[in-house]
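Example 355.
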Amino acid sequence: MNSASTNAKHLMENIYTSVLVFDSKLRLTGINASAENLLSVSQRKVAGQTAYEILPASPHFAETIERALKMKHPYTERAVDLKLSNTNLITVDFIVTPLMDDDESQEVIVELINMQSLTRVIREENLSVLHDAARESLQGMAHEIKNPLGGLRGAAQLLEQELKGSELTEYTNIIISEADRLQNLVDRMLAPKGKLCVSRINIHEVLQYVHDLVEAESNNRLNVERDYDPSLPDFEADREQLIQAILNIFRNAVQAINEDGQIWIQTRIKRKCTIRQQYYKLAVQIEIVDDGPGVPAGIEGGLFYPLVTGRAEGTGLGLSIAQSLIQLHGGFIEYERIKHRTVFRIILPIRTRND
Ligand SMILES: Nc1ncnc2c1ncn2[C@@H]1O[C@H](COP(=O)(O)OP(=O)(O)O)[C@@H](O)[C@H]1O
Ligand SMILES: [Mg+2]
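Predicted structure in complex with adenosine-5'-diphosphate:
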């Protein structure tokens, strides 16, 4: 392969836009990674299939390509809904360009631009700027937390001595270990920003730890359904910070549901994805979902900003801290309301040696 076509291939693989190429018989001859992701298909499976076969539930897709080929004319359609084979619906801008050869259309290039992820990118950019400011104000607050925390821990220790091995020491243990963790976190917040204390972690172990913690502090038994992806590898991250971020989201979910409410935790591995304008081979997606009423409409827009709260006794710091911690790891958190369920989704890149 000459270097021009190697470059073109490299370019195709790494651009944000989803690109598919079809021949004059409407058979797929090329697809880039972004399109595989968007349409939830693998190149191996769909190579050689026709446009009708690739999206059988959306014949409009193939019809538009066929028309462009016949008319030898490019087509652009905005905000087209496409139904995927896995029944998911995506909304895309759809650009079809026939390539002419001796006045015959031989091939057609299809570009799909995912409207959802485009709006997401814009939101993240705004958030990053805001979070620099937010982080500074949090550092001020961290100072204020440090002193009372020492007193709290000391008191719990005295109490533990008084309890002398009774069952109640389970609770003093929680106070002490949580105070230590907070102390650790506060110290880290006061440290120069962006400093991670990285070790190799197993995300399912971290989720279990957070689950046990939240269960211990809630009066009711929690109704939690887990759906874990066993193929997720261990990866490098700051364990304390991850625990804090997930804990903040988990606690919100517990506060949002009623007594017989339900929480779902799902993990998935994501391949070939773009996160905050960076391309990664692997990422992990963690969803914490509840069947509560969802975020009040009035605060949705500023949900991840510090001091935005919808609860009388709330501080409005939980999600803002969680977002900062996850962003330090190169990822982001987003909120979505899907079919009467509240979804908080954490996307974290997994860095491999070659990244
Ligand atoms: N799972 C959820 N369901 C409904 N509302 C939520 C959920 N998570 C967060 N919220 C809303 O977002 C607000 C901000 O959350 P957070 O930043 O953790 O601060 P706090 O919990 O102290 O209010 C909450 O007060 C609540 O109104
Ligand atoms: Mg909270």
